[in-house]
Automatic annotation (TrEMBL):
<keyword id="KW-0285">Flavoprotein</keyword>
<dbReference type="InterPro" id="IPR036683">
    <property type="entry name" value="CO_DH_flav_C_dom_sf"/>
</dbReference>
<protein>
    <submittedName>
        <fullName>Xanthine dehydrogenase family protein subunit M</fullName>
    </submittedName>
</protein>
<dbReference type="InterPro" id="IPR016167">
    <property type="entry name" value="FAD-bd_PCMH_sub1"/>
</dbReference>
<dbReference type="InterPro" id="IPR016169">
    <property type="entry name" value="FAD-bd_PCMH_sub2"/>
</dbReference>
<dbReference type="InterPro" id="IPR036318">
    <property type="entry name" value="FAD-bd_PCMH-like_sf"/>
</dbReference>
<dbReference type="InterPro" id="IPR016166">
    <property type="entry name" value="FAD-bd_PCMH"/>
</dbReference>
<keyword id="KW-0274">FAD</keyword>
<dbReference type="InterPro" id="IPR002346">
    <property type="entry name" value="Mopterin_DH_FAD-bd"/>
</dbReference>
<dbReference type="Pfam" id="PF03450">
    <property type="entry name" value="CO_deh_flav_C"/>
</dbReference>
<keyword id="KW-0560">Oxidoreductase</keyword>
<dbReference type="Pfam" id="PF00941">
    <property type="entry name" value="FAD_binding_5"/>
</dbReference>
<feature type="domain" description="FAD-binding PCMH-type">
    <location>
        <begin position="1"/>
        <end position="177"/>
    </location>
</feature>
<dbReference type="InterPro" id="IPR051312">
    <property type="entry name" value="Diverse_Substr_Oxidored"/>
</dbReference>
<dbReference type="InterPro" id="IPR005107">
    <property type="entry name" value="CO_DH_flav_C"/>
</dbReference>
Amino acid sequence: MIPAPFEYHRPESVEAAVKLIADFGDSARVLAGGHSLIPMMKMRMTDIAHLVDLQKIGTLKGIRIDGRSVTIGAMTTQHELIESTALANVAPILREAALQIADPQVRYVGTLGGNVANGDPGNDMPALMQCLDASYHLQGPDGARTVKARDFYEAAYFTARTDEEILTAVSFEAPAGGHAYVKQKRKTGDYATAAAAVVIAKSGGACSAASIAMTNLSDTPVWCEAAGDALVGTALGAADVENAVNAMLEVINPQDDNKGPVAFKRHAAAVVLRRAIERAASRA
């Protein structure tokens, strides 16, 4: 449980961090909160000669809100998301989701950028960002670019981010209406067996817009357009909710593991999603 020897770097700007990664190539890795990377280093599951710590880069931190436009620096911690009153006022679903991540000790150090950038299908924020139609801001040797969260995840631990790029921020338009993030897990601190992010808007007693995404039920987060479409124009009755649940069950692809067999995971997914839709509808 002791990492192999490595060189530690603590740059003070994004440009300096990008240069270090470009200079050292495959032997360098970026460190945000470290909850995924450090255990892998301790178990020697990854060979890293240069660790580039982003903690000292002030421009990667902070929450900026302009009307309903929200931009969050990649090094903003889960605790800071929870404590931000301004963020809770415009996008309370982030606080609801962050409170369900691991435990306080982890949330004080774990970052939004680290949670979304490494492509772990068990992380909570990727599905939420897809639900919100968020954009990821990347910077590398060739400059800056933006990738939609819905286009970012390719497979487990494989994303649209190149090895030379750093995720600098996440941005989205805060949705109007109701929201919910519901998570089923075996114990406090565990990854989800199934979790659902839902936002719903109503007009004239009917659903006018809906977005639904789920966590840890495939090798990527699953945003299902058909599930949201199944609710639009309806009164959000029991049959309408079941149509949305069935649409999601068509696209998830859970696997047997220590959290349970496929049949149990599909059952948990359906229960969690029903609860999330009902809660979001009650808040809309």
